[in-house]
Amino acid sequence: MLVASSKPYLSFVIPAKNEEGSVQALYQEIVAAVHPLKKTYEIIFIDDGSTDSTFEKLTQLHKKDSQVKIIKFRGNLGKSAALQTGFDKASGNIVFTMDADLQDNPREILHFLEKINEGYDLVSGWKKTRHDPSVKVIPSRILNNFLTPLLTGVKLHDINCGFKAYRKEVVKTLNLYGELYRFIPVFAAKQSFRVTEIPVDHRARKHGKSKFGWERNIKGFLDLLTVVFLTGYNRRPGHFFGTFGLISFFAGFVVGLYITYLRLTTGGVQGRQPLLILGILLMIVGVQLVSTGLLAEMMLAARTKLDYTSSIERLIE
Ligand code: UDP
Ligand code: MG
Question: If one looks up domain 10-233 in CATH, what number appears?
Answer without folding.
Answer: 3.90.550.10
